[in-house]
Design goal:
Largest sheet: 8 strands, mixed
Enzyme class: isomerase
GO molecular function: acyltransferase activity, transferring groups other than amino-acyl groups; metal ion binding; NAD(P)HX epimerase activity; nucleotide binding
Cofactor: K(+)
Helix content: 25-40%
Organism: Oribacterium sinus F0268
Number of helices: 12
Order of helices and strands: EEHHEEEHEHEEHEHHEHEHEHEHEEEHE
CATH topology of the largest domain: Rossmann fold
Pfam families: Acetyltransf_7, YjeF_N
CATH class of the largest domain: Alpha Beta
Shape: elongated
Distance between the termini: 29 Å
Number of strands: 17
CATH superfamily of the largest domain: YjeF N-terminal domain
């Protein structure tokens, strides 16, 4: 397996008709020149319910049991392939050809050469069922892979809530435990286990922004991670309840992603006040027509509760990890109404009202899921915090701790 500092190029020559094709694979990392083009193809090729955050594909690649590769014919960019590589099995997670080059025969040529490097290559497709909405597309995909030496293995698996059918090279047998081990290793690799204090986390944020990642990009990654973890679907109604700090900015990113995927979303502001980066993403939400309201401080608990009961999900972005002390009105009644509502609750980074170092609170949001960003905070893993958190998930977004 390669280190992420190395560039390994394969030049594989094959004669097709009168033309010599040179297929070249190049590692994708944060320095790849056409990274935005690759990201756009990823978004075009895969529906949101099948996607993981793109930054995770870049972060968790080429040194953690993954090959994330750009594909070229000499200097012509063709697309990308993202493969989980194990001792017993290699599994194509994503494979996409640039839109204008589909139906050109490149897909078959790439797979033919790629299988030479990974003989025990497998993949998964949506089951071909006549009642499915995209039956013709599924059938076409099945025919393509059969033509390229793959066969179905009568094994169905679920990835990110979507059912797929495994395929492997002809004559190949796959033990389901090998597949599950490979996928688990990949997903486990982007959940950080390190625990920091609030100050240590703040210092790591500052160090990362000063040396590696722009603050707006870091905020986008946080929002994308929260969006990915949430179990929202088209038809759901989501309310983002936002304070005035960077925690709210993460929520604006989520709101815009939900809106892009045509999921009904609204924003409720505690105050018409923003951090610099939060303002940037709030403006995008406004430009894209997302409904926004400012909390009426005279609204009592019963009215708030009735309002919150009309949503399927509430995203809690009121206070961040730096909050300490007691929650005051009108936020106290707001949190109480969130807790008493029927909505599923997702907290961004920490449950609003909770002390990030101790997990204590006089009142805090009770979440179904809390999506901790970067590193776990000490307060989140205390017994006191566990009373308010249904499931705790930590997401690595590329925050770096300074070596001292």
């Amino acid at each position: 397996m390669w280190s992420n500092k190395e560039k390994i190029w394969w030049r594989i020559k094959a004669m097709f008709s009168d033309r010599r094709i040179m297929i070249r694979f190049e590692i994708i990392d944060e320095n790849t020149k056409n990274l935005e083009e690759i990201k756009q193809l990823y978004f075009d090729a895969f529906p949101f319910e099948e996607r993981i955050p793109f930054f995770i594909m870049v972060l968790v690649g080429n040194d953690r049991g993954v090959e994330f590769l750009s594909i070229y014919d000499d200097d012509k960019w063709l697309g990308f392939i993202h493969t989980l590589v194990g001792d017993e099995l290699s599994y194509i997670f994503y494979f996409a050809i640039e839109n204008s080059l589909r139906q050109s025969g490149y897909g078959s040529k790439i797979l033919r050469e790629y299988k030479k490097m990974h003989p025990r290559l497998s993949l998964a497709i949506e089951p071909v069922e006549e009642e499915s909405d995209n039956f013709k597309q599924r059938k076409k995909r099945l025919d393509f892979y059969r033509k390229n030496g793959f066969e179905t293995l009568d094994t169905r698996v679920v990835e990110m809530g979507v059912e797929f059918e495994l395929m492997g090279a002809k004559g190949m047998e796959i033990k389901e435990r090998d597949y599950r081990k490979l996928v688990k290793k990949f997903f486990d690799s982007f959940e950080q286990k390190k625990v920091l204090s609030v100050k240590e986390m703040r210092d790591a944020d500052s160090y990362t922004i000063a040396n590696f990642v722009d603050s707006k990009e870091l905020m986008y990654r946080a929002g994308e991670a929260i969006f990915y973890v949430g179990d929202w679907n088209i038809g759901d109604k989501v309310l983002v309840v936002a304070g005035s700090g960077n925690n709210a900015g993460d929520g604006y990113v989520v709101a815009d992603l939900l809106n892009t995927e045509e999921i009904d979303v609204e924003i409720l502001l505690i105050k018409d006040k923003f951090s610099e980066d939060g303002q940037y993403y709030f403006n995008i939400c406004k430009q894209n027509g997302i409904k926004c309201n400012v909390l009426d401080e005279s609204m009592d608990y019963s009215v708030l509760l009735e309002k919150f009961n009309s949503y399927d999900y509430i995203l809690d972005c009121i206070y961040g990890t730096g909050f300490s002390g007691k929650v005051k009105e009108p936020v106290y009644s707001l949190i109480k109404a969130i807790n008493d509502s029927n909505a599923s609750v997702v907290s961004a980074d920490i449950n609003s009202g909770m002390n990030g170092d101790t997990g204590e609170s006089d009142i805090c949001v009770n979440s179904d899921i809390t999506v901790s960003i970067g590193f776990l905070k000490k307060g989140l893993i205390t017994n006191e915090a566990s009373k308010h958190i249904g499931e705790l998930i930590n997401m690595d977004i590329g925050i770096v701790i300074e070596d001292k």
